[in-house]
Amino acid sequence: MLGPGLLFVVSGPSGAGKDTLVDALLARTGRLRYSVSATTRPPRPGEREGEHYFFVTPEEFKRREAAGGLLEWREYNGNLYGTPRDFVEDTLTQGYDLIMKPEVNGALAIKSTFPDAVLIFLLPDRFSYLRGRLLARRTETNEEIARRLEIAHEEIRNIRDFDYIVINEEHRSDEAVKDLQAILHAERFRIHRFADDAIRKLEHS
Ligand code: 5GP
Questions:
Q1: Measuring from each residue's beta carbon to the nearest atom of ligand 1, which residues come in under 6 Å?
Q2: β-sheet bridge partners, residue 167
Q3: For a substitution probing ligand 1, which of 70, 76, 154 has the most ligand atoms within 8 Å of its CB?
Q4: CATH top-level class of 7-35+96-203
């Protein structure tokens, strides 16, 4: 019935809960794939190659970028992050919906390439919780956390370019997952997503 898949982009500051919420959403939603990014950042404990990221050297990253293999890429806090082109294009063409979680500038770059992409900005209920969440995960140094918080203030300035805002309330992340699901469901029923011949088929069935 539907044409190409939908592209959902969940963005927002580091510590807002993108990873946890997107994991939960993927576990609950059929026909939804995740776009694994490439990065030059070293893996954190527990992160697996090809699942959380494709971990590459700066040389390999630049080689892929020069060959047109990345849809967008950004430097974030001293490391490079980018969205592999082939997987995104192939998955959408096959009719699967796709979700990705780049930082805010990457999200806006995706929107300019795919104007139909649905951009969702994720925030905690208090901006001040970001720091506590970054401290609690114990994966960054204090300097890195300070820099991520500075970036967060820059990122929120772009919030009006997004389609939706979802608040990930402290201790109620399940509600935020439901909100994300509601957005996905509603977007799947937007009339302009249905091809004319799909509607004609309905008419003549
Ligand atoms: P982290 O080091 O915490 O995994 O990611 C740092 C930031 O880079 C996060 O805000 C994350 O959303 C972003 N990021 C991850 N993958 C990509 C990507 O492919 N492109 C862009 N532009 N940002 C990304």
A1: 14, 18, 37, 41, 72, 74, 76, 81-83, 101-103, 106
A2: 123
A3: 76
A4: alpha beta
* Residues 100 and 110: beta-carbon distance below 8 Å: yes
Encode the chain (205 residues) as per-residue pLDDT tens digits: 556 899 999 999 999 999 999 999 999 999 999 999 999 999 999 999 999 999 999 999 999 999 999 999 999 999 999 999 999 999 999 999 999 999 999 999 999 999 999 999 999 999 999 999 999 988 889 999 999 999 999 999 999 999 999 999 999 999 999 999 999 999 999 988 888 888 999 999 9
Closest CA to 99 of 17, 23, 191: 23
Domain residues of the chain, as ranges?
7-35+96-203
Q: Report the separation in Å between the CA atom of 103 and the middle of ligand 1, taken as the mean of its atom positions.
A: 5
Q: Which two tokens stand for residue 6?
A: 């939908």
